[in-house]
Inverse folding.
């Protein structure tokens, strides 16, 4: 099947924009991008999309999320991160595969409606006897049709060992490593154009032991998969790490061999100058989550400085319970405005923020070879945004897209397959996805009633 998009303002991200440009797709790959009308396409089996009044961008890449949290939105709304976590650990301990399946369907559908074609998820709680939670979210991603990078997370350091979570929600080291290896063997697909890749992701320096961090790194590198965790999200974390290990969070992870081009961290709000330089020189990625960091009062990450140093930076929504109903495209605006609020009006441009949401995210996930830009040979992961109507009053369509209310999607393609059409999710009936999320919330609240 050939698809031709014409008359759109095409932003390649890799170097150039084409007002009134075209994109040609053959199967799951882009075969041509350029200015003006498209080259002649085969007469039969070609769909032509008129992109007049539209902005074409690479599909957005979500580098950090917690899909299960869709079922626990609106709780502990005025809490710090540590207060929020201690409130929610116990109800989360009651979730089962049915909760995760419903929450993931709704959260991934919502991401797709905000232009996301590739989503990473960090799932780190696995209550015993609650079904296969990891499989539940993978099945949901397949149904919604987004490219998926689930991270098999873990916690083994409960309160009795000086960690934050209650002992009842942590696993033992041997179980974690065995289950993580099994998840990689069962699901990870390293092939070009893969729809499913697994990462190893112990939760955070204050919820896991040194042995788990070391063992996770050894396992990931033996299996050729990526490493992910939370880092430097709050000042509380820095104080905790200094007290426990006598180092900053970044120094601690560096001492364990956790920096490198196969690693990306979530948040990185509280970084020292030496931390930033170290992340850049080791090519370690950062998932910037501006709305969640603001909602929890954690602070504003020094993204402009990370970019100046040449570090890889992507965008992430983070869990829906700390960034209720936040669209991924909306994080572009949040990133721009928060950097400018702190560092001035030149701190982050609209095109830099769009690059973070696309190519920057692809770099964090190790996918810059096949997604993140619009160019021949790349996968046909494309968002076509309507910037006509009210948005047409803004002279620059990229500014219209990124500075105000996110415009509606004309089309969202993942590997050439339509996932959103005329701003409506079509792979899963949109109302059905929303209902599943609401049902997951009600089910979790019932299961958690005894501990809330």
């Amino acid at each position: 099947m050939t698809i031709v998009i014409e008359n759109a303002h095409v932003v390649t991200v890799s170097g150039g924009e084409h007002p009134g440009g075209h994109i040609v797709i053959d199967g799951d790959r882009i075969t041509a991008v350029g200015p003006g009308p498209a080259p002649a396409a085969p007469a039969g089996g070609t769909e032509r999309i008129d992109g007049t009044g539209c902005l074409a961008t690479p599909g957005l890449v979500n580098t950090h999320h917690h899909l299960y949290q869709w079922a626990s939105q609106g709780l502990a709304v005025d809490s710090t991160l540590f207060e929020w976590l201690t409130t929610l650990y116990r109800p989360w301990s009651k979730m089962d595969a049915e909760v995760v399946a419903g929450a993931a369907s709704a959260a991934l559908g919502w991401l797709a409606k905000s232009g996301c074609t590739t989503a990473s998820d960090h799932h780190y709680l696995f209550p015993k006897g609650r079904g296969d939670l990891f499989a539940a979210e993978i099945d949901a991603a397949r149904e919604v049709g987004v490219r998926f990078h689930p991270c098999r997370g873990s916690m083994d350091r409960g309160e009795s060992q000086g960690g934050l979570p209650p002992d009842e929600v942590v696993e033992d080291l041997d179980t974690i490593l065995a289950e993580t290896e099994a998840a990689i063997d069962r699901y990870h697909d390293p092939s070009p154009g893969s729809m499913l890749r697994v990462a190893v992701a112990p939760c955070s320096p204050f919820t896991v032991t040194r042995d788990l961090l070391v063992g996770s790194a050894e396992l990931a590198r033996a299996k050729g998969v990526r490493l992910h965790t939370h880092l430097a999200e709050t000042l509380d974390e820095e104080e905790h790490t200094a007290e426990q290990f006598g180092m900053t969070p970044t120094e601690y992870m560096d001492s364990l061999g956790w920096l490198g081009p196969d690693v990306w961290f979530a948040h990185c709000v509280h970084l020292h100058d030496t931390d930033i330089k170290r992340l850049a020189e080791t090519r370690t990625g950062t998932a910037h989550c501006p709305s969640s960091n603001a909602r929890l009062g954690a602070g504003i990450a020094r993204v402009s400085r990370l970019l100046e140093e040449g570090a890889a930076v992507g965008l992430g929504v983070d869990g829906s319970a700390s960034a209720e109903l936040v669209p991924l495209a909306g994080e572009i605006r949040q990133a721009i405005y928060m950097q400018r609020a702190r560092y001035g009006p030149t701190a982050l441009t609209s095109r830099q923020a769009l690059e973070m949401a696309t190519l920057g995210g692809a770099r964090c996930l190790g996918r810059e070879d096949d997604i993140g830009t619009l160019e021949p040979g790349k996968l046909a992961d494309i968002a076509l945004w309507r910037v006509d109507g009210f948005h047409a009053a803004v002279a620059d369509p990229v500014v219209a897209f990124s500075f105000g209310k996110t415009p509606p999607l004309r089309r969202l393609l993942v590997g050439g397959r339509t996932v959103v059409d005329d701003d409506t999710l079509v792979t899963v009936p949109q109302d059905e996805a929303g209902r599943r999320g609401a049902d997951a919330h009600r089910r979790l609240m019932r299961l958690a009633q005894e501990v809330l």
Summary: The CA atoms of residues 31 and 122 lie 33 Å apart. The chain has two domains: 2-58+373-425, 60-364.
